[in-house]
Design a protein that fits this description.
16% of the residues lie in helices and 40% in strands. It has two helices and nine strands. β1 and β2 form a beta hairpin. The two termini are 29 Å apart.
Length: 182
């Protein structure tokens, strides 16, 4: 392989890694104007989440029934495997059940830029009637229904920029977990 081909390969790998870096995606759509805003984030599967995936892979009933997304106005500066409900300031009224048919592999929603053959995608949809959430949202996480203090979480998100949702805006939240293991 000549030097030009080596450079092209290196650039392609860097681009691929930067694309995979954003494994959480928010799609906000203003229903009055049709304007869409995309916000990427970073999420990590927690220890409780890894246990959930292992139990599901073995056909067992998971210890935790992770089914709901929560929006938060504050959270850890860097998502970590030890995060739980107590690490976040949850936005009142933000709990949303996972969209029917999710999680799934591969995702069929064309808005999800992080989908793939080895990517487990979760989707949560907020209608215009959900909210409004006027306080800036900075974090999200998936947990059990009606989660409270001490509840375990599947994953921890941090958004690349804070956002709000008014009554004219719908929102789709994707969490993508790559299953490549070692």
């Amino acid at each position: 392989m000549n030097i030009l081909d080596q450079i092209k390969t290196a650039v392609a790998l860097v681009e691929l890694k930067s694309i995979r870096k954003h494994d959480a995606l928010l799609v906000l759509e203003d229903k009055r104007t049709g304007r869409r805003r995309l916000i990427w984030g970073r999420n990590i599967v927690t220890t409780a989440g890894n246990t959930w995936y292992a139990q599901k892979a073995c056909g067992q009933t998971p210890t935790n029934a992770f089914t709901s997304l929560y929006l938060a106005t504050a959270g850890p500066s860097t998502p970590a495997v030890g995060d739980d409900y107590d690490d976040f300031t949850v936005q009142s009224g933000s709990e949303k059940a996972v969209t029917s048919g999710y999680p799934k592999v591969p995702d069929t929603d064309s808005d999800n830029t992080g989908l793939g053959a080895t990517v487990v995608s979760w989707k949560f949809e907020y209608a215009t009637s959900d909210g409004p959430f006027a306080t800036a949202i900075t974090h999200s996480f998936i947990s059990i229904a009606s989660a409270t203090t001490g509840s375990p979480i599947l994953n921890s998100y941090k958004w690349s920029s804070s956002w709000t949702k008014d009554v004219s805006t719908s929102a789709k939240v994707f969490a993508n977990h790559t299953v490549l293991g070692s």
